[in-house]
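Researcher: Sequence of BROMI middle region domain-containing protein follows. Predict its structure.
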Amino acid sequence: AAPNCSETALIHIAHILARIASVEEGLTLLLYGENMNSSEEKSPTGAHLIAQFSKKLLDEDISIFSGSEMFPVVKGAFTSVCRQIYSTCEGLQVLIPYSLHESIAKAWKKTSLLSERIPTPVEGSDSVSLVSQESQNIMAWEENLLDDLLNFAATPKGLLLLQRTGAINECVTFMFNQYAKKLQ
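Model: Prediction complete. Tokens:
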């Protein structure tokens, strides 16, 4: 990431990449590049670059945005691009070496611990709205990460990877709660 690149621009880029990955031709382009049968020198395809960047974001190896309020949004946007890719058997096979399931699970565990530490707001305090906004943001990010993990279950191999993260029970509970909300 370039130091002068804005979070908003990265979010827009991620949305465009997610749209590309959502159609078969776009996914093929991201997975294999333009020349699928070319024997030329191999450079990393779009899927590899997106996975590398997303992993760095999730592992917080990129310090440029670390203090920003938009950092979870940037992480979520690029994770959703990876989600488009790993929801297919071919895409998952390409992304397995990056262990995104482990990075997402690690980020979820960290966020889960943060959500438990948020103090209960005291009535009449000025910090009530600040604390509730912060807790809503953390809970939304936690749910987003659980949803990302749950989407590994789209393929048999992905389900195995999800099971290895140790978060499968939480994902099932999350899925049940989402289903219960829809029924209401």
